[in-house]
Write a structure and sequence with these properties.
This protein is of the alpha+beta class and about 475 residues long. It contains 13 helices and 14 strands. The strands form three sheets. Strands 7, 8, 9, 10, 11, 12, 13 and 14 form an eight-stranded mixed sheet that branches. Strands 2-3-5-4 form a four-stranded mixed sheet, with helices on one face. The chain is elongated and about 105 Å long.
């Protein structure tokens, strides 16, 4: 869900920037180039995965809060140990991702079902009221238009009184719907060429991708705005191809044909169809675009910039991930059996981690969660594992010995020695400071600490604690 939100926000920013710049870009670049540049945005919305850099422009923290009050108040002994164990096991008593995920799936499914049912009802209506065109002159005009455009596939032509503007339906078996045959010969030619261009460019498949992207990001209003802009750009680019290599007189006749079509607003529409008329709003821009016969660039540069922006949008967000996985806050008690299981698992992990010190006299008793050195209870132990200041360290308040590991220049373990009271006080003070930061729900970059069953495990300068996490 976090990846989806990152994708939705970053692509929304890119889409809004493209929308703002479109009026300026349309003066230099062709409508077709701008139209297919939007296809990159649509693909970026459908495919949410991006390359993420270590440095982010916008930081999004995915570290949850610490678990608190998991145990009942009357629980004693290893209560705090269980709390820390639950944290390290990643127990999530509140599965927020399931709730948000189910809500997202429900919204996406509802969106797709709505448009699917609407299209199905529209097809049924067309099947019931549509009539095949048998007029030889109209069919001859259709065949000529197909030959001019280079389409060999059969395209059906129907009169459907339930539509008020020409449109095309059918992904594999295209059908052009006309509200009537009362068009002039030139007007009918332009209308048919317009719809055939849609079919040749596979605009219905493009529209399906837009519907899919909108379904995935149904919660984002910017995606709906982008879908409207794409639909309008589709019509403008189609107009440009229809009037390509046409003189001003031909462009004027095509504009008059469009104005003649818009006398009645289209009463029935579907997402999986082309529509000759998209409303009076923006018609002025469309007419100006038709009458503009200046040479323009193909728009490859714009497409490349949008592609770079889409692929590189992962740098806009980076999740702040910590080595330790924490669970979300909850006041829900863990079952006693689960508590015992977590205690046992963490003690076993501790035994495995500190097994390397046994040959030097330091041993761990799993049953009592205690450390011994030559038969005496250890109060403090510290081992600097590498040059990155990574430590194994623990404190048992009821112990009597303070120790530290001895390593050579290559950080190979060579023995264990005693620790002075001054060094012990220094380490315990750093642990207390880390515990105070822990209580405030923060992750310290140079240290953190947690109290565990009467003992303290420390992570100093990015190190690991005595549970091996």
């Amino acid at each position: 869900m976090i990846v989806l939100i990152e994708c939705s926000v970053s692509m929304s920013l890119l889409a809004l920037g493209f929308i703002v710049m479109t009026p300026l870009l349309s003066k230099r670049y062709s409508p077709k180039g701008l139209y297919y540049a939007w296809l990159v945005v649509v693909a970026g919305l459908i495919i949410p995965f991006r390359f993420h850099l270590n440095t982010a422009l916008i930081q999004m923290s995915t570290d949850p809060f610490y678990i608190q009050n998991i145990m009942p108040e009357n629980t004693s002994g290893d209560a705090e140990f269980v709390i820390q164990a639950a944290v390290h096991q990643g127990v999530q008593a509140i599965p927020w991702y399931q709730f948000v995920g189910c809500l997202w799936i429900a919204g996406a499914a509802a969106f797709l079902v709505y448009h699917g049912v609407r299209h199905y009802r529209f097809i049924r209506m067309v099947t019931r009221w549509g009539e095949q065109v048998n007029n030889p002159q109209v069919l001859k005009t259709l065949e000529k238009s197909k030959n001019d455009i280079g389409i060999t596939k059969q395209v059906k032509l129907q009169i459907c009184p339930c539509v008020s503007s020409p449109m095309m339906i059918g992904f594999l078996n295209p059908v052009i719907l006309l509200p009537g045959c009362d068009f002039s010969e030139d007007g009918l030619t332009y209308i048919l060429r317009h719809e055939l261009v849609h079919f040749k460019r596979k605009d219905l498949w493009y529209k399906s991708l837009v519907v899919l992207a909108t379904a995935i990001h149904w919660f984002n209003p910017v995606v709906y705005l982008a879908a409207k802009v794409i639909a309008f750009q589709c019509e403008i680019s189609c107009d440009a191809e229809v009037v390509n290599e046409t003189d001003m007189a031909g462009r004027q006749r095509y504009s008059e044909t469009i104005l003649g079509v818009i006398k009645n607003q289209s009463r029935v529409q579907t997402a999986f169809s082309t529509n000759f008329y998209r409303g009076r709003k923006g018609m002025k821009k469309r007419i100006f675009s038709i009458m503009d016969n200046t040479k323009k660039k193909a728009g490859v540069a714009i497409l490349c910039l949008i592609l770079i922006g889409t692929v590189g949008s992962g740098m806009a967000f980076a999740a702040n991930k910590n080595e330790t996985s924490y669970a979300y806050s909850t006041n829900t008690p863990l079952p006693l059996q689960e508590q015992e299981k977590l205690i046992q698992q963490n003690r076993e992990t501790t035994a495995e981690q500190y097994a390397i010190y046994e040959k030097y006299g330091l041993s761990y008793e799993l049953k009592t969660d205690s450390f011994y050195y030559n038969g005496k209870l250890v109060r403090f132990f510290s081992d600097k594992l590498n040059s990155s200041d990574t430590y194994n360290s623990f404190t048992r308040t009821n112990g009597v010995l303070d120790l530290k590991a001895v390593r050579n220049a290559n950080y190979e373990l060579t023995g264990i020695t005693s620790v002075s009271q001054e060094e012990y006080d220094k380490h315990t003070e750093s642990i207390k400071r880390a515990q105070a930061a822990d209580t405030q729900g923060t992750i310290q970059e140079n240290g953190s600490g947690n109290t565990i069953g009467g003992s303290t495990s420390a992570v100093e300068n990015g190190g690991t604690d005595d549970t091996g996490r």
